[in-house]
Amino acid sequence: MDQRLLISGSRQLTGHVFISGSKNSALAILAGTLCCSSGSVALRGVPDLLDTRTMADVLRSLGARVEKDGGGGEGNALLVDASNVGSVEPCAERMGRIRAGFFVLGPLVARFGKAEVALPGGCRIGARPVDLYIKGLEALANWNAHSKLWDGKFCVHAANGKGLIGGSFHLSYPSVGATETFMMAASMAEGVSVLTNAAMEPEVVDLAHFLNACGACIEGAGTNTIVITGRKKLYGAEFTVIPDRIEAGTFMVAAAITRSCIALSPVIPLHLARLSEKLTEAGCQVLQIASRTLEVSSVPEVVGDELQAFNIKTLPYPGFPTDLQAQCMALLTTCVGSSYIEESVFENRMHHVEELKKLGAQINLEGNSAFIHGKKPGSIALHGGRVRAADLRGGAALVLAGMAASGVTQVEGVAHVDRGYERFEEKLVSLGADIRREGKTASGRWAHIRPDGHLVH
Ligand SMILES: CC(=O)N[C@H]1[C@@H](OP(=O)(O)OP(=O)(O)OC[C@H]2O[C@@H](n3ccc(=O)[nH]c3=O)[C@H](O)[C@@H]2O)O[C@H](CO)[C@@H](O)[C@@H]1O
Ligand SMILES: C=C(OP(=O)(O)O)C(=O)O
């Protein structure tokens, strides 16, 4: 059903928000459960999202058992038993909905010697090729590698349909997905593998911790060189996913853009260092008030009447995250002064620019650089309007912009936002935002949708 969010802007937020487990970590770890040929994985802190549900379906299509785990613990818990997986060809339709579906390739090839995996979906923010995933796997199947793209599927066969042999591979770009794929595959390859120029994102480290808990031997995750000593067999374990730094960052920007003060937990402050620096540069106060709690204040009485513009260049971790670029652009439209954002990770991640302009933002786009002309002191930068999300973070940015705008903003294409934020508007409403979800009925009318998902006619 087509859904939209109606946001009445200019409300201040207050209180505390619970940060869910990391989407990108959970997705990679769910793929990693395929490495476990015996025992079950009890995974805590899995955010309940369209993407994690789709990933669970991908695993089921291979023969894994994935159930909600009533065992308690933090957040949502899943029990995954991949010991009976027999198929090496996941459901192509589900694969086409998410990027992370392709992460199953590594574990399948390592465990079964072959896999036939449809090309992935995910946000349309660039060409997003998978060449580095494939080359990495080929380096592990070094004496008789065989991979080809056929009928929309990647078919990868290790030597004689058997397992992989350890090898070295240098990534020409520190791709997160290619690093995770190599790590999973090498965990079950014979001998030692070395990956250089590896991605250093916290989600890569979390996946390594998970695989090690399952019996793998991975050293160096979080640096640019990862050394993996292959093991014959990995087994189930208990694991808790790290907090979602991008969800946390989005709420930090929500506090900034609405000139509010909110607390967030659990978070790992180090994962949010670049954003904290930028918000501080703008004039906000970012305080660590407990080991896993941050407080962000942008209240005028505390930090002054106006926030100041700042510049951003997105980079692989520990640089500024591309997944917070759009949200920061929304914020910059409400700051005083001019700023620019250079998107260096994805070549087509500026769809939100045209939509922000519909709300009154003044932005000039030149290729992958956006020049933002901030507001005049004392004025309200944005006004309500009708906009459409084209991708996940761009959608979140439009919601944030709507919260800062005068009047009512309609954000359509909410399914993109639901892919990556657990109970997004419910959490914002609990902080004081005025947001209502509507769905299009069979007769074409918009009707209110309650948090339990029911339409109110
Ligand atoms: C599910 C998941 O974890 N998604 C995250 C992951 O995406 P994902 O793993 O897709 O991101 P990558 O790090 O692989 O992509 C970065 C750049 O490398 C390029 N590239 C990648 C692979 C490849 O084989 N060839 C190639 O050229 C991409 O086109 C892109 O320009 O990391 C991104 C960068 O932090 C985040 O924005 C995404 O939220
Ligand atoms: C780009 C993102 O996700 P995906 O890689 O799953 O498309 C994201 O989370 O911002």
From TrEMBL:
One of its GO terms (molecular function) is UDP-N-acetylglucosamine 1-carboxyvinyltransferase activity. It is found in: Cytoplasm. It comes from the Eukaryota. It catalyses: phosphoenolpyruvate + UDP-N-acetyl-alpha-D-glucosamine = UDP-N-acetyl-3-O-(1-carboxyvinyl)-alpha-D-glucosamine + phosphate. Pathway: Cell wall biogenesis; peptidoglycan biosynthesis. Belongs to the EPSP synthase family. MurA subfamily. InterPro entries: Enolpyruvate_Tfrase_dom, Enolpyruvate_Tfrase_sf, MurA_subfamily, RNA3'P_cycl/enolpyr_Trfase_a/b, UDP_GlcNAc_COvinyl_MurA. PANTHER family: UDP-N-ACETYLGLUCOSAMINE 1-CARBOXYVINYLTRANSFERASE. This is UDP-N-acetylglucosamine 1-carboxyvinyltransferase. The lineage of its organism: Eukaryota, Viridiplantae, Streptophyta, Embryophyta, Tracheophyta.
